[in-house]
Amino acid sequence: GVMMGCPFHAERVEDYNPLQPETFESAHAEYARMRAECPVAHSDAYGGFWALARYGDIVDVLSTPQRYITSVQNVVPAVAFTGRRPPLHFDPPQHTPYRAVLNPLLSSEAVARMEPIIRAYVDEELAPLLQAGACDVCNDFGSTVPVRVFARWMHLPDDLEAELRVRGSAFIRAVESGDAAAMRVTSLALYEIARDMVARRKLKPEDPSWDPTSAMLKGVTADGTPFPEEFVVGMVRQVLVVGIVAPTVFMGSVAVHLSRHPELHAQLRADPSLIPAATEEFLRLYTPYRGFARTANTDVVIGGREIREREPIALLYASANRDETVFERPDEFILHRPNIKEHIAFGRGAHYCVGTALARLELRIMLEALVLRTTRIEVSGDIEMSPFPELGPWAVPVKLHTA
C-alpha cells in the first residue's frame, strides 16, 4: 500500500538503517539527509522503530509526557531485561517522588563539593597516560574517571567500588558487542552490587542528606508508602552505570576533534577561561546519546506519518543538536553560540538528566586536564564507533604530546 511518507519511497521501505557500519562523520551526514528528506523515519532494525530527526518534533514529544510515555520503552534497542528501574522507566506522576530523592543529592551545591575529588581523580588517571605518551582515550580515561566519581558519589565501600570497576566495564563491553546474552549476565552482576549496597544500608543507614542509597530507602511514594525495595535496588543499579557510558564516548569525540583542530587546542590552552563554553559546544556537536525513546499512548501523526500506539519512537538528540533551523552552521565548532542553551544533550522535560550538574563539572575538568597537559593530541590508530543508542567512538588510540 502507498504510504504518505518520505518522498522517495512509494511504499513502506526502510527509511533509515542504524545497523550500517559508521565512521566518525557518517551518522551526522545521515541525520542531515533525514532532516531534509525524511524527518520522521521508519527503521526495521531492533524489531522496528520510528526515528525523529528534527529539533521541533523532538522537543514537542519531550514536552508532552502525558501522551509520549517512557514506561513502555525508554530506549532503542530495548535493554531493560530485569524489570523497570525508576525514575527513568516511570512516567509522571509516579516517577516524581523517585526524582525528588535524587535531586538534592545532585544539586549544584552538592556537586560543587565534589570538585576537588574529581580533580584528584582526573590527575591520578591522566598522570600514567601522559607518562606513557599514548592511550585509548575512551577506555583509559573516558570511562575510568566516571566510575570513580560515581563510586564516590554513591559512597560505595572500597570492595564494591573495585567490583564496579570490573563489572561496569564488563557491562559496557557487552553493550558494545551488542551481545544480548552478555548484556543480561553483566547487568545481573551490576544488580548484585546494587543489592549488596542496599542490604548494607538497611543494616546500617547513613545520613540521607549525602548518602544516595540511604535516601532512597527513606523515600516514599505519593501516598506515603516506602519505595518497594526492588525499585530501590533498580534505582541503585541504574545510577551505577548511567553516568559511565556517555562520558566515555564523549571524551573520545572530543579527542578526535582536538586532534583535527590543533588551533582550537592551542586557543583553549592559551585561555582556559574558554573551557566551560567549549564544553557546552562540544556537548551540542558530539551529543553522546543519539537519543532516548518514547511510545505514544494513542495513534499519532507526526510530519504526515501515522505512528501507532506503542510503536517505539527514538528521539535523535544528536540530530536535533545539529538542526540547521536552530543552530547556524551546525557542523562547525563555534564558541559562545548565542543560543547554546537550546541544545538538548541532556534531554528536556520530566526526564531531563538528573545528573546534569555532575556531568558538566566532570566533563569540564576532564577536558581542561586533557587540553592543559598536552600540547597536541594525535589519533594514532583506528577509531571504533559505538552502536545505538550511543553516538561516538568506543575506542580512540591517541599519542599524547606533552612538549
Overall description:
The chain is α+β, with helices and mostly antiparallel strands and 403 residues long. Helices cover 47% and strands 10% of the residues. It is built from 16 helices and twelve strands. It has helices spanning 26-37, 55-62, 96-102, 108-112, 115-132, 137-142, 144-153, 158-177, 180-203, 212-218, 229-242, 245-260, 262-270, 275-285, 317-320, 356-372; strands at 40-43, 49-52, 68-69, 134-136, 293-296, 300-302, 305-307, 312-315, 376-379, 384-385, 393-395, 397-401. Strands 1-2-8-5-3 form a five-stranded mixed β-sheet, with helices on one face. A three-stranded antiparallel β-sheet has the order 4-12-9. Strand 1 (40-43) and strand 2 (49-52) form a beta hairpin. The longest helix has 24 residues, at 180-203. It is globular.
Summarize the structure.
With 403 residues, the protein is of the alpha+beta class.
